[in-house]
Structure formats: C-alpha cells, structure tokens
Write a structure and sequence with these properties.
Blueprint (H helix, E strand, L loop, with lengths): L4 E6 L8 E7 L2 E7 L12 H4 L1 H5 L9 E4 L2 E4 L2 H19 L4 E5 L1 H4 L4 H12 L4 E3 L5 H10 L4 E3 L6 E5 L3 H4 L1 H12 L3 E5 L12 E3 L6 H14 L5 H7 E2 L1 H7 L5 H8 L3 H13 L3 E4 L11 H14 L9 E3 L25 H7 L6 E2 L2 H7 L5 E5 L3 H4 L3 H9 L3 E6 L11 E4 L8 E4 L9 E5 L11 H11 L11 H8 L7 H7 L4 E2 L8 H4 L8 E2 L3 H5 L19 H6 L2 E7 L13 H4 L6 E5 H6 L7 E6 L2 E10 L6 E5 L26 E9 L3
Parallel strand pairs: 6-7, 6-16, 7-15, 9-10, 9-13, 10-11, 12-22, 16-17, 17-18, 23-27, 24-26
Antiparallel strand pairs: 1-2, 2-3, 4-5, 4-18, 8-14, 19-20, 20-21, 23-28, 24-27, 25-26, 25-28
Amino acid sequence: METSQVIKTACQICPINCGLTVYLKGGKVVKIEGQPENPVTKGGVCIKAARAMDWMYHPDRLKQPRKRHNGEWKDISWDEALETIVTRLQEVKEAYGPQALGVYVGCPALDQAWVAKFIQRFTDLFGTPNIFRSDTCFYSRQTGNRLTYGDHYSPDPENAKCVMVVGFDPHASAPNWQWAIDRSLKKGARLIVVDPRRTAVAKKANVHVQPRPGTDCALLLAMLNVIISEQLYDQEFVSKWTVGFEQLGEHLRQYSPEEVEKITWVPAAAIREMARTFATSKPACIIYSISTLDMTSSGVENSQAIAMLQAITGNLQVEGGWVSMPVVPSNPIRLPDKIPGKAPGQDEFPVFYEMVGATFTTAQGPLLTRTIESGKIKALIVAAANPILTSPDARRVQEALSKLDFLVVHDLFMTETAKLAHIVLPATTFLERTDIVHVYPWLSAYPYVMARKKTVEIEGCWPDTRLWLELAKRMGYGQYFPWRNWEEVLDYIYQPSELTVEYLTRDKPEGVFYDTVKYRQYEREGFPTPSGKVELYSKTLERLGCDPLPTYKEPSESPISTPELAADYPLILIAGSRLLQYHHSQHRNVARLRKGASEPMVELHADTAAQYGIADGDTVVISTKRGSIELKAQTTRDIVPGVVNMAHGWEEANVNLLTDEAPASPMAPTPLLKGLLCKMSKKAI
C-alpha cells in the first residue's frame, strides 16, 4: 500500500495508551498498526485500535453543534452554541448559586491524564465541587492498597515465576496484560486464575478455580490462612516490615479452606493448591485489573487481602512482584485557593476520601443521580460519557437527567444521553488531538511517557480541552487560562520534567522513560503509612470506626443474605463483562467490529439452560427486582452453573436496567455489579 505519511502516536480507546503507527494517504488515515518501538506494548494492538479509522470516519459522526427546541433538533454554529451555554450557566448561577452546576466526565476524557483536572480548574473558578467521574471501579482498590501500604503498586508479570489473575479477563479488556502473561508463560511461569468463567486466560492456567460471584474475599482470606498456618510466608519481611501479623493470624482462623469452600463453592484442596503455588513460586504477582473486585460488598477488603498476599510472601517492590511507579514531575493544574468545597459523597465515605482524596478529588459517577434528585444540580455538562448505558440503575439515571434545566453533551455521536440534551457538541477521536500520555501506573510497571500526535483534523469537531479553554475565556476567566491551546498547557504541566510536546512529537515519537523502577525502596524510606510499615491491622480503619482487619461480607443480594429474594430470583448475575470488540458503550456502530459480537447475549451454563428449557440462541427475559431485558441465550460449559453473565453497553439490551446504583460498601462508593440476584424465562412466542 502506498502511503504519503506515517505518524507515530498513541491510542486512547482504553487506559493502556498503546503505541500506534498510523498510515495516511491523501491526508486520510488508511491503516493503523501497533508500534514495535513501544517498550510497553511492543507492537501489539487490539482490533478496536486497528479499526479506529472506521469509527473516526463514520457517517453518523457529529460535525456541527446541535440545539434542541420544542422537541426538534437544528444545527447551529459553535459561536451560538458557546454563547448559549455561557448565558445559561450564568442564569443558573444567579438563580441557584454556583453549586447548581455539575460536570460528568467519561473515560475518553479521564484517560487523557490531565483533562479532568483542567476541567476542574474551570469548575473551581465557577464555584462548584460537583464534578463526577463516570467510572464505577478502582475506588475500592485504591482504598485497600493505601490502607495497607500507603501507596499503589503495579504488577510485573513479565518477570514473574507465578502470576495470579483474579476476576479479570485480559484478553478482552487489556490485551497488553495478556501479551505479558503469555511471554511469562513461555519462560515457565505458573498461572493461577480465579474467575467464575473459563475465560481465554483461564484456559491457559495451571490452576483455575470458579468461585460464586462476590465471594472472592473469603477465598483470598483462606489463601492467607493456609500461607500463615503452613509457615509459607517470608518470615524476615513479616518480622521487619509489617504490623498486626499476630492479630491477622488469629483473625484468619475462621477462614479455613473447609469453611470457605461452603461460601465460595471452591474445593478446599484447590484453595490449598493455590496458596502453596503462589507462596512458593517467587517472584509472584497478582493481577486484578481495576474493576471486578471493586464491584462487590467486600471491595476494599478484597484489595486489602490481595495487598497482604503480596506483602507476606515477600513479593513487594521486587522484580516480578509488585513494584512502585515513580510519578512524572509536573506542575499542578488546579487552583488550591479556589477549590469550592467538598465533592458529593465526601462526608459519606470518609475512609475512601482520607485514603485517596488527593488522587480522586472528583465525586463518583453513581452519586450523580442522587445529587440531581436532591435538587442541588440544575445544569450538567457531560464530557465523553453515556451514563444512560454505562451507569447502574439506568432508568433512574434517565429520569434524573430529564429533570435538569439545562444539559450539554460533548460527544462523537448522538448517544442515548445526548438525545436528552439541550445542546450537543461534536467531539474528536484520539486521532484528532495531541496530548502527552503515560501508561496508567496501575496497568503497567513502566515509567514511560510518549506523545499522542494528532494525525488528521475533522472540520467542526473540537477536543475537550479546546471547549473548556473557550468556555473559560467567555466566562471571564481568561487570566487563569492564559494558554492559546492545549499544547501550551501541556508544556506548562510538564515543565518540571523538561518534557515538551515538540520534543516528544519531533525527537522521541516512540516515547521515553522518565525514570527507572526502584526496588526495595522501603529499606531506605519505609512505607508511607502511620507506622512506616505494611499495616496488616489498620489503625486508620479502627480510628474511623471500621473493622481494622479484612472481613468477608456476603453480597447484599445472595442466596445467603436474602434467601426470600433468592426464592424469586434464584440465579446470580455478573453485569458488565468485557467484549474485545468494544470499550464500554463505544464502537457498536462500527460494522467490522460488530461482526465479531453482533448482538447482546446472556452467557449461561448448558445445564442451567436445560433446567429452564432454553436452547442456545433462544430469546430469554432476564429480570431483577429493578427491571427486565430481552436478549439471546448463549449456552456454554465455561461458566459456573446457576450464574449468568452479560456485557454492558448495549442499547437494545441495557444490563444497567437490572443493576442498582447504591454503594455496596460504606468504605468506598462503588455499586454492587458482580453478584446480583436475577431470574430467567424463555420469551413466549
């Protein structure tokens, strides 16, 4: 294929930011491949990135602002759109005060490292703390890790002799991890997988256990029980660098493999095999991504238990274990003296905000609905998000958004959320903007940064940063937004690191390492906890009135906790599993991707299907106490009997009509999405 230009850039469909080589012909993108020079992804690329030009050039792309009036849409200019937004925001502020404005920021904006904070610079000046993140994951993980270590660590599977994957399907959701695991397996590493489904990675495992959804914490505590009772732990590390070991050991007596088998459905012998394999195959690391284990009633406790497994086996801050990621030196983008107060949920979740408040200064997505319902928010700007499909309790979300005085959506397409807006603005794909990116530190053990170089421009479409820069100037905040474009903002942010957009795009398009991974830093500095050590017994939790030791909590809906509900809803639902072709609700309009997953399906065991008189391909109705959806059955033997699994993001079968936005735990604002109760019936013809 003859091409006129080749551009090195980075993907931004998901947080991995894979290196890409983009080929152009006649000013148009014609092919996308992985970038071999990228040391993180090593030339790998998923099918979403390889088909990104289909998405970018899709005929349904928004290319001009739209305004809804009396139920009709009309195209308007950017100038009219901006003036309308500024006028309405000022009216709302005068009528209700500055905190009547909310902003909801989705993954495409969040995954640009500084965009959410740049938006917060605007909201700080406006006077509202009501900026929400769309993600429903990672909060419990951050909380549990920081309670235990005071920090966050990244797994290093490529150098491990044992890799344990818990509740995570890397083939579908983070292929870079799958590639790293595969390279580790080729070197002889052992693989343990914990998942109710027999996923692609589970099929490669030496040990695969399939727990009842939502019971992972009990399983992890049983592993700790075995490792301590059989003295398989690193005695020197435990003696020098932990506090609370005796209390933990005593606490774990209730979690014998035999007792935990009753809770999890995992045989006691398999629990012992897992524990012994992990403890005796050093170095070892646990990978559990950023979602599944958060979305249970024991979300924080899951992360505490995993952190403790890494620590007491001596697999902390070592090559092939968990490593600490150095931070890129940078200037702050927020204005500390302008921050207008507490974000929603800050008083409700003191553990979470004390542990990670400096990292997550936004409110969490599931809190948006209740904040609107309370009457506090009258106007909302949605940036790169589709909460009607991706937020739990979708019917309630839609009702709340419909009550707003003013709704603005900035997106690529007329999404379900955009259809409710008063103003819709056309956004850009990652191929149409320049940025500086570094791999999510919790998804990679590489202190690496690179440029995402703009490849083309689609007329009429604006990136998030241009929108907020222009809004700031029209609102009279120009002195606080002195930059002409996002490239100048990036140069300001990265000034302490001496990284510039020009240097990275011109001289180092493949990226650079900004630092090296440091091993055993605790020997020089200790741990950033109150004791300076790994806290197996948390004084912080004790002070805040919580259990200082990780304790398994039964899901709020289950055959055990709610037997009367289980009598009517006897099946267990896993909501929100990933499909390789899609990222959340995105890409379902791309024909070449849709071929691989053309319609929504519910995955269930063949024996369960037979019990209900259902054949593969039958249309079924799945119901919870919140709602019902129809979709086709996909029978398999790769899932635990009595469990059904569904991906999210389908407009025609929205699994979030079945879910609940209520926080699953008092310690972190994450909903219960893994382990709800449901029922199933064959659709009557």
